[in-house]
Automatic annotation (TrEMBL):
The lineage of its organism: Bacteria, Bacillati, Actinomycetota, Actinomycetes, Pseudonocardiales. It holds the Pfam family MbnB_TglH_ChrH. This is Endonuclease. One of its GO terms (molecular function) is endonuclease activity. It comes from the Bacteria. Keywords: Endonuclease, Hydrolase, Nuclease. It comes from Amycolatopsis antarctica. NCBIfam families: PRK05409.1 (NF003818).
Length: 355
């Protein structure tokens, strides 16, 4: 999961929604060891107390059940109809997140089969020269959005979807993606990718928005699991069940971010191995891999540190169940040397190849 889109230069989009990792929400949970993964003795994820949920400001309010929104869900379902089932790519290989700060590094790194770019950082009619060069070399460039707020209770902002579609067309991209989250409520931006309540009502809203977005995009659409600092109470299904039903009802694909699974295991006590056991493996488009750091007993998915061995172990856990079409290294800050990036890409490839 990329950092908040870093806006620099003329290639930045006016529809940007920032998602900063430098202003992380406070959390009192302590970091726990993940040694319990093999034995599956991890305790259940703690839920946020009801009082704490009531105190959340409108900027981070979750989707709510309301008659107008329920009616909108029904209208979208009736108008758009059943979504076509997207087919995962047959083979992507190992990729890296393209960022303006390392655009020339990406161009010269060995072992880069494809790249992913933050869609909100681009203008469809003014692509950076380094991206155009990659496309001319035949390197696939996949747009990854951060601002659609697909799980939000507000009506989907179709202008943002159209921007994503335009960027994809300019890059001749075979697919596009975003996240299972919301970022706006009450006309305000949360500044982060916020987790959804895992309820039927929230799933219905998400399905309606994803289905509408797919009708505009006209391309395979993949959605990523996020790292979270809290879980809403009264969950009606596990995260894997939530994502599984989402794929069944919309035909969308999944991006499995194993770094986010690692973060949630440490901060929420969730079981990443069980997640991998329960998700529909055949719907995986590709995998995200990234590093982070622990601060004050809380693990932060910074994308600014080396990939921990435990994250590569989770990639290996996934690889033991299925061969994902691709895996991508995300790095958004404190950029290391070319050699260090190349070594991380090689480590990812080694796991992906099963060697």
């Amino acid at each position: 999961m990329p950092r908040a889109a870093e806006v620099t230069g003329s290639a930045c989009s006016p529809v940007l929604v920032a998602r900063s990792r430098s202003a992380v929400s406070p959390c009192t949970r302590t970091t726990r060891s993940v040694a319990c993964w093999p034995s599956r003795r991890c305790r259940s994820p703690p839920a946020v107390a009801a009082g704490a949920v009531a105190a959340v400001p409108v900027a981070v309010a979750p989707p709510v059940a309301a008659d107008p929104r329920a009616a909108a869900v029904a209208v979208v379902a009736a108008v758009v109809g059943a979504a076509a089932v997207a087919e995962p790519p047959s083979r992507l290989g190992v990729g890296i997140g393209w960022r303006p700060e390392i655009d020339r590094t990406v161009a010269r790194l060995p072992g880069v089969d494809w790249v992913e770019v933050i869609a909100e950082n681009l203008h469809a009619h003014e692509l950076p020269a380094s991206l155009s060069d990659l496309r001319a070399r035949g390197v696939p460039v996949l747009p990854h959005a951060v601002s659609l707020s697909l799980g939000g209770a507000e009506v989907l902002d179709t202008h943002r979807v159209e921007h994503l579609a335009a960027v994809a067309a300019a890059l001749d991209a075979p697919m596009v993606s975003d996240h299972v989250c919301f970022v706006r409520a009450g006309g305000l931006d949360a500044g982060h990718l916020m987790p959804l309540p895992r309820t039927r009502t929230a799933l219905d809203v998400l399905v309606a928005n994803v289905t509408l977005a797919q009708s505009i995009l006209g391309l395979p659409f993949a959605l990523e699991n996020i790292a979270a600092m809290l879980e809403w109470p009264d969950a009606e299904m596990s995260e894997a069940e939530f994502l599984g039903e989402l794929t069944e009802r919309t035909g969308c694909l999944l991006i499995v971010d194993v770094a986010n699974l690692y973060a949630n295991a440490l901060n929420l006590g969730s079981d990443p191995v069980r997640f991998l056991d329960e998700i529909p493996l055949e719907r995986i488009a590709y995998v995200h891999v990234a590093g982070g750091e622990s601060i004050g007993g809380v693990y932060h998915d910074t994308h600014a540190h080396p990939v921990p061995p435990a994250v590569l172990e989770l990639l290996g856990e996934l690889r033991s169940r299925t061969v994902p079409p691709g895996a991508l290294l995300e790095r958004d800050d404190r950029y290391p040397t070319d050699g260090e990036l190349a070594a991380e890409l090689a480590a990812i490839r080694k796991v992906l190849d099963g060697s």
